[in-house]
Amino acid sequence: MGLQGGCMCGAVRYEASGDPFNATLCHCVDCRRASGAPALAWFSVRRDALRWTRGSPARNASSPGVERLFCGRCGTQLTWHGADAPDEIDVTICSLDEPDAVAPADHTFASQQVRWLHLADALPRYVRTRSNGQLC
Known about the structure:
The protein is 5% helix and 37% strand.
């Protein structure tokens, strides 16, 4: 059995099988606005490894080539999918039933982090994405 999770109200549930990868704490403006939080924790799985087990999420094309899935009833942010990585999908870590099962390995879009958020971890902080490789 894989990682299980869902939205706050329980209308949408999922299971993610396979090994998670690219776990990150994203500080980009879009993630902050979509979640209403100072950062959003994600992990990736192969797109075919994510299965909806209850309900169907609502969809939002949040920017060109990007689709975010969320619960249409309670609004919980569930996934992010970019056209540039068609075989991957990102899942919000804190929508997991056991969010401690996947810990972020780095910070992405750290250049957009809100100034009042002070995190004392020693994780790498990337200006944008890890594939860009530029550390803060």
